[in-house]
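Protocol step 4 of 6: record predicted structures for both targets in the notebook before any analysis. Target 1:
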Amino acid sequence: MALDIQKIRAQFPVLHQEVNGKPLVYFDNGATSQKPQMVIDAITHYYSKENSNIHRGVHFLSQQATDKYEAAREATRRFINADSIEEIIITRGTTEAINLVASCLSKSLFKKGDEILISTIEHHSNIVPWQMACEQTGAVLKVIPVLDSGELDMDAYRDLLNEKTKLVAVNHISNALGTINPIEEMIPLAHAKGALVLIDGAQAVPHTKVDVQVLNADFYCFSAHKMYGPTGIGILHGKKEILEKMPPYHGGGEMIKEVKFEGSTYNDLPFKFEGGTPNIAGGIGLEAAIRFMEEVGVENIAKQEAELLAYATQKLKEVGGIRFVGEAKNKAGLVSFLMEGIHPYDAGTILDKLGIAIRTGHLCAQPVMARFDITGTMRASFAVYNTKEEIDVFIAAINRVKIMFG
């Protein structure tokens, strides 16, 4: 059954406004998605009716807030088909999830001469933490090259894997190129060499069905704000047997069982990694976002976005003078491109004047830009509430930019 896109759009208040006197066209979903009313209402209800700290209070509000927050953990477990809620660590986002793993493995696994393998097309959040880990431990960072198409060089990946490889950390989908990496192939290859695998799923979970038991990665990270949820909340999924062996990330309340000046004992999973008062409202908002995605259907979301990508790509080709950056055969719903003779910032500024929000610049992926010998791109990224009519408005604006610059 076809989606009723107008009915879906009606659930997003922010979409129904004008920017610079023009109807808003929001194509910056790769940075953050908009929020449906059910997510906004869930957060508002918590602060207006249930506000209390969680896990430690015996009073009514605390119990109610705790139940709602833990419901988000269970909803997440179900959504990605994790084996247990003990494997669902709630973080501030993908960035903190990756930093958590990098910090803990630096204390417990990495040593001088070990190798950590990432790819050329990583977001800075999946580069810098591993550079820091190497600085702290003497491990060596190795990089999987990318082909002109924007696809990883799988032959080079196989060659880079060896007995020194302790971790492979790659994204599921590139935020800069839209490339969907063949992680189903990459994970078992890494495991065959005895390496752990971390997948940055920030750009994948909002757009495609993820089953962590099928993928079998050791760690899988993602953020709520890219999947119609609030900012400041994210998930680290980790295999229980690995999380149990890792030291805590930071110390404080909740992550302990007993504290004495002589020493402390740490809490059971998942609380061992969740010290301090969490983003309670964010967790409750995440649960609502998952409900939204389940009601629409992840498969339906993927189909709608694939249609938008195909339509936008064809229309941009018809414009002429467009250089696409990243043309992988297997892509998610974003297009990264340059206009001949026009700086991305200049084009993006004009589009903003016409009510169109896109992302321009290096997209927090400077090594990708260096690989393609550019300083940045223009990126239009789509969500389920976007339409072909919006793409037509976008293309008309692109043509206007082209005319303005001669």
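Target 2:
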Amino acid sequence: MKQRNARLTILFCRLASFVQAIVINLAPVLFIPLREEFGLTYEQIGRLILINFATQVATDLIFGYIVDRLGPKPFVVAANVLSALGLWVFALTPGLFANPYHGLIAGTVIFSMGSGLLELLVSPIVNSLPSDQKASDMALMHSFYAWGQATVILLTTVLLFIIGREHWRAIALIWTVLPITTAIGFMTLYIPRFVEEQHRHRLRDLVRIPSFLVAVVTIGLAGASELSIAQWTSAFAEKGLGLPKVIGDVGGLVLFAVALGLGRIWFGLRGEKAAQSLGLYRYMIVGAAAAVVAYLVASLSPWPLLSLAGCVLAGLAVSLLWPGMLSVTAARFPLAGASMFAIMSASGDLGGAFAPWFVGIVADRAPFLLNWSGQLFAGGLTAEEAGLRSGLLLATVYPLVMVILLLRLQATARRSAQRIER
């Protein structure tokens, strides 16, 4: 592959990561307008997140083997088309159903299929291209997800404020321009197969390796750690902290995304030096530990602005967890192909599906939680505030367990490196 074409392919992979940010983060900004217009419960809102990521999991598992056999190009084009189509359905079909929630579900399923394919494809595409800085390319590509998240949240929040919440459908349709453009771009590119069939590691062999199974569980916790707070910061700031929506979205969710992007940009600019001598494991361990602190600050602080700062800190803390796990696992199993990325992506999506849903379930149990939450939180909380704070507090377990598993993976990698040196 010519170097120029490789760099152009990486550029469109970065745009595809931006598209994924659109379809994952647009709905959370609209949670409160949707709740108010259609009378949704927090559990129903959380269920949309569950459906989103559960669909991505199914897509990852179904198409991993097929992509290895047929090649990635037709699927990466289809992924962007499905992303655009899903947003159209999400915006326009609620008015066609007796229960508008069914229209929201239909749109969510379609654009989640697109997002699942993008997640399955863009990382192995970048990893397969000729480069001597694969970890940096991976981190920089994933940073575009963060910049997409920040851009979607900021522009959507501003437009909701300017033209009114009742016009959220038009805003959703505007965002379909980028996936359509990216689909056209991928049509013009040559994208090679990831690993030739005769050289590829079989998935049935990978799942027998203990360190691979630990890595799969760990990236699931990475997804849970990132998405629990990313998907709920907007609603948490407005309904859990009592802040105006504009301040909560811009000062919390946008800055969360900026912190997420800056962490990935920093790692990308440092290049491979940051990944040498097991350094990437150390960065991830520190990040997961910092995420524990951030979750505790966000959920327990009696001062709303400090809680919001905890949400922002969480963005920086989790920035390397997902791309870092993909990088170290791809380096450990270089001939695994799309099937390995499918399992890793599916696990991350499962964490991103069930963890935010669990936050919503806890929030809906607020009247019960209010009986004991006074011992943890500042006095005078409403049931809604207590429920949202409790949901985030219980989510602290995800980065905490991740620290333990990362320490085990680091020890395994160190022993493997010592054997090679001998």
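Step 5 preliminary note on target 2. DSSP finds 19 helices and no strands in the chain. The chain has one domain: 3-421.
Proceed to step 6 after PI sign-off.
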